[in-house]
Each structure stands twice: as C-alpha cells, then as structure tokens.
Write a structure and sequence with these properties.
The chain is α+β, with helices and mostly antiparallel strands. The protein has 3 domains: 2-54, Structural Genomics Hypothetical 15.5 Kd Protein In mrcA-pckA Intergenic Region, Chain A (Roll), CATH 3.10.290; 62-124 and 210-226, Alpha-Beta Plaits (2-Layer Sandwich), CATH 3.30.70; 130-205, Alpha-Beta Plaits (2-Layer Sandwich), CATH 3.30.70. 20% of the residues lie in helices and 28% in strands. The protein contains 6 helices and 15 strands. It has helices at residues 4-11, 16-24, 115-122, 142-150, 185-191, 223-226; strands at residues 2-3, 28-30, 33-34, 41-42, 48-50, 53-54, 62-67, 96-98, 106-112, 130-136, 165-170, 173-178, 197-205, 208-209, 218-220. A hairpin with a 2-residue loop joins strand 2 (28-30) and strand 3 (33-34). Helix 1 packs across helix 2. The chain is elongated, with a radius of gyration of 22 Å. It starts with a strand and ends with a helix. Bound molecules: uracil. Uracil binds next to helix 5. Uracil binds at residues 101-102, 105, 184-187, 200.
Amino acid sequence: MIRLDKFIADATELSRKQVQRAARQGFITVNDAVQKDPSIKVNESDSIVISGEVINAARPRYFVLNKPQGYVCTNKDDEHPTVLDLLDEPRKSLLQICGRLDIDTTGLVLISDDGKWNHRVTSPNKGQGKCYYVCLASDISDDEVEQLKKGIRLQGEPKPCKPADIERLFSNELNITISEGRYHQVKRMFGAVNNRVTELHRKSVGQIELGELEEGEYRELSEAEVATF
Ligand code: URA
C-alpha cells in the first residue's frame, strides 16, 4: 500500500504537489468515488483515475547503456553531460545509476528505478564479475599478471583485492574480470604494478552484456537479464 499522491506521481509526469492540488480540487477518483485526501493508502488493485485518465501503477524500469567518454555517472552535474541525458524516458529523476564508471571509461552501465535491484547489483557480497577491456601504456609481464590474478594490494588499503580473472590479448591489452567495486579499482590495480591504463571499457556485469549497442545507445533489459540479480 502506498499513498495516493505517491502512487500517481510515480506513474505520471506530475509532482506530488500537483497531485495533491488535483485531489483537493476533486479531479481524482479511487474506485469511482471522488477522493480529496491525497494521503490515503492505495494499491494496484484500486481503480485510480485523474481527470478521466486511468493510472496504472508504475512498473520498475531496467536499462543497459553503452557509455561514451565524457559522460559522468551521476544524476546531475554542472560541468559534464550525465548518462541520464542519453535516455529518452519519462520520470528520469526516479532512475538510479547502478555503480559508477569514470568519465573517461566507456561501456556498460546499468540504470534502474528499482532500489532493491540496484542494491543487489552493487552489493560486493553478490560477487558477480565485472569484465573490462584494458589497454595499457606499457607491456605487462607474466609475473605482473600473476600478481593481479592472485589479488593485489592497492596503495593505502589494508586488504588486498579479491583474485581477478585475466585473459591476455596482446602484450599491453587484456580483459580483466573483478568482483569488487573499489574506487578507481582497475586503474589502481595496474598502477600497483607500475603501469597506466590508457583505455578502459566495461564489457559485462554478471551475465548482462552490451550486445549490439553502439556508444550512446541503450536498451531495456529482458526479464531473464533482470532475474540474474
Ligand atoms: N575501475 C576504474 O578504475 N575505473 C572505472 O571506471 C571502473 C573501474
């Protein structure tokens, strides 16, 4: 059960204040009776109508987006465009970005308005792997790859990282899969073996992949993809 004004505001472009005003003015009916109190509790089985328009409960939304460079993973930023600017969706203020990529990192970003799902995606306990393509400034040795695989200690951190999976592509390019989300983790991991990341692209999170998405494009997740978290 949720408040009538929240139920309508979540499912429409109206603010809570606008809904409250509409209720007081008698524009809202609940189960065919005019309802002037916006604080009463309703649920999905109630028939809710505002100015003749039937309101269906907002369904949670789940998106995957291919982030281009130069975009930030915050809801609002005064200097840079945010990944939410790339979405052509109503009620964007309800959407949350699940886990951040740096401004110069490209690739897979998950966005949803289901807070519990977002929490599961970002929870380190879930331990679902995040796979990144990495290009390095210098070649990396087999010994350094082994150190990273075992779990390297980052500067200023008491505990080493959890073990990582690494697939070497070339002498300075590889795919790395990590299960945690420490601050600038991938860049710092390669910094710990005296190297520098020049390109970072997230390819997948758990079983969710970008598929055919071009940079700047997004799509809704399938039910099967949502259910993997
Ligand atoms: N690790 C980083 O260093 N940067 C990112 O954007 C993601 C993971």
